[in-house]
Amino acid sequence: MTFWAGVILGFVLNLVATQFWELWKRYQAHAAAEKLAGTWIAHNMLDARNVDLSHPMPNAGLTVIKSRPRWWSANSHVLDVVGEDIAPNIRHQSGNIVIDPVFPRRASRLVCYEDSHEISEQKIVIGLDGDTLHVFPIDLSAAGVGIIYGRHALCRKR
How far is 153 from 146, CA to CA, in rounded Å? Predict the structure, then answer.
């Protein structure tokens, strides 16, 4: 009888520990996501190393990033993003940023334009300061979709 009580107790404790660990990882992912919430401005790169902070990227409007409200949800590492291109016409875009749960300085973004079926995908590396998102568009030219912009950075609006 003691053997089976030990087996059942071990099984129950394993379930509790696994659930606790999962909730802890979700809390950490949400904390990383909340750090990115705010308003961001797109800037071109001067060269391979430096962001052009002298003026915003032409034709780009503000980008607003919002974190999800509940840290315990399975998608606590997903951020909602809205933005706009302002020239030649205003084009609204929406999408998500998904933070890599294993390496929280790396993320991916899906951009969906609301006036068409245009979609783009980007890889993002979060800068050490937390106020710069280095954006690397994924080249879809092999699929017949050309990239109209290159590497750039989103900088937190102060």
Answer: 20
Q: What is the CATH number of the domain that holds 110?
A: 2.40.128
Q: What is the pTM of this model?
A: 0.83
| CA atoms of 109 and 92, how far apart (whole Å) | 16
| Largest Cα span, the chain | 77
- In which domain, by residue range, is 6 found? 2-156
Strand partners, 106: 125
**pLDDT per residue over 76-128, tens digit each?**
999 999 999 887 888 999 999 999 988 989 999 999 989 888 888 999 999 99
pLDDT tens digits for 95-108?
999 999 889 899 99
- Number of domains the chain contains: 1
Structure tokens at 153: 């950075």
Question: Using the 8-state DSSP alphabet, how is residue 90 labeled?
Answer: -
- Beta pairing partners, 137: 122
